[in-house]
């Protein structure tokens, strides 16, 4: 029988965060109302009046037309929307299905098993099972559990990543390499960068993190959030979502929110802050959020393609060569990442850290 948890702040935090049951464990107790620490202030709740239904982020068929045509569609989407979906992207559908199955397998484990993957217990900071975003820094929690895996080597992944999902995660990361390379190549060509040398390659895709997100069904979805407003700090993010929906991105000029509808066998691609900085603001790292769902559990699996932690990132020389003024300073990527992970989600504010 599911344990009962009274709506006492300490009890809830203890059960969800400390005992590792996650919000999934809490949702499965059959509670009728979200506990008070999950109630977001009014301004952070999704206002249905604010949803834009006449605009759509582009869907790009990566098999249609030559590289030039696909590349142009990618650059246009990255400039205008910062978000797009790709179909016929080359990642085998079976690999995507396996990752989704592995996600459900991992979150289906008992709390004691999942607890082995908290940073304290896992023996490495590169493996992190957790809930919400940064519970210690948040005044309201997010209705989400996650497993976050920072890739350093196959050996480390085999030794430390949970066996319920390590092979599928590695397979997905490997199978998406060509697609990621094509997208980044196109985006660089759009900035007049034709030679991606070792330094640039490291800045663009020197490290990767894969997250498994689990958003349990929620009794009061309108009061809480799955993920609060934020932009990613990646160069690009490749996101696999299931067929539930709930991801919303900021519309053009910051107006309203546009749904990213699940499209069978697609991947969602978005520009992150690191690429916005390198492109001196040409490619947009757009604010996005996930709503909670009142009737279904949802999963998503983003791969964050990042610079290496020790890379210095700033506007690329090719972007500035015609006299364009840099808007961003050059920052150590690790400092930028620390800044992001030490606070609650706060929309587009993270990038101010790099503003000149
Ligand atoms: O679950 C999603 O659709 C998006 C999750 C997200 O924005 C993130 O993990 O950064
Ligand atoms: Fe995100």
UniProtKB/TrEMBL annotation:
Family named by the database record: Belongs to the iron/ascorbate-dependent oxidoreductase family.
MF GO annotations: dioxygenase activity; metal ion binding
GO biological process entries: coumarin biosynthetic process
InterPro entries referenced in this protein's UniProt entry, alphabetically: DIOX_N, IPNS-like_FE2OG_OXY, IPNS-like_sf, Oxoglu/Fe-dep_dioxygenase_dom, Plant_2OG-oxidoreductases
Keyword Cell division annotated: no
Regions annotated as coiled coil: none
Domain Fe2OG dioxygenase, chain residue ranges per copy: 199-307
Protein's name according to its UniProt entry: Fe2OG dioxygenase domain-containing protein
Sequence intervals crossing the membrane: none
Cofactor: L-ascorbate
Domain of life of the source: Eukaryota
Organism: Aquilegia coerulea
Keywords: Dioxygenase, Iron, Metal-binding, Oxidoreductase
One Pfam entry name: 2OG-FeII_Oxy
Matching SUPFAM superfamilies: Clavaminate synthase-like (SSF51197)
């Amino acid at each position: 029988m599911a344990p009962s948890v009274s709506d006492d702040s300490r009890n809830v935090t203890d059960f969800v965060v400390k005992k590792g049951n996650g919000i999934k464990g809490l949702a499965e107790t059959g509670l009728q109302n979200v506990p008070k620490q999950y109630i977001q202030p009014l301004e952070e709740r999704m206002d249905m009046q604010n949803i834009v239904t006449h605009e759509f982020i582009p869907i790009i068929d990566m098999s249609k037309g030559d590289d030039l045509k696909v590349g142009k569609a990618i650059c246009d989407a990255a400039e205008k929307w910062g978000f797009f979906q790709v179909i016929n992207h080359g990642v085998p559908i079976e690999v995507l299905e396996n990752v989704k199955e592995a996600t459900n397998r991992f979150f289906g484990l008992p709390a004691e098993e999942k607890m082995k993957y908290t940073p304290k217990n896992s023996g490495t900071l590169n493996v992190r099972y957790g809930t919400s975003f940064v519970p210690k820094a948040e005044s309201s929690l997010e209705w989400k559990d996650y497993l976050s895996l920072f890739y350093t080597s196959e050996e480390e992944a085999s030794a430390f990543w949970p066996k319920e999902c390590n092979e599928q995660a590695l397979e997905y990361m490997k199978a998406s390499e060509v697609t990621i390379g094509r997208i980044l190549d196109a985006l660089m060509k759009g900035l007049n960068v034709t030679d991606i040398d070792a330094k640039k390659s490291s800045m663009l895709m020197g490290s990767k993190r894969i997250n498994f997100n689990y958003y349990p069904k929620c009794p009061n979805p309108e009061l809480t959030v799955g993920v609060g407003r934020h932009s990613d700090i990646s160069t690009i993010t490749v996101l696999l979502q299931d067929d539930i929906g709930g991801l919303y991105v900021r519309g053009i000029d910051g107006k309203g929110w546009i749904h990213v509808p699940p499209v069978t066998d697609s991947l969602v691609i978005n520009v992150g802050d690191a690429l916005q900085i390198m492109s001196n603001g040409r490619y947009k790292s757009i604010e996005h959020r996930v709503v909670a769902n009142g009737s279904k559990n949802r999963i998503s699996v983003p791969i964050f393609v990042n610079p290496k932690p020790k890379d210095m990132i700033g506007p690329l020389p090719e972007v500035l060569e015609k006299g364009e003024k840099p808007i961003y300073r050059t920052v150590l990527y690790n400092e930028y990442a620390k800044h992001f992970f030490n606070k609650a989600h706060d929309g587009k504010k993270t990038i101010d850290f790099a503003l000149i």
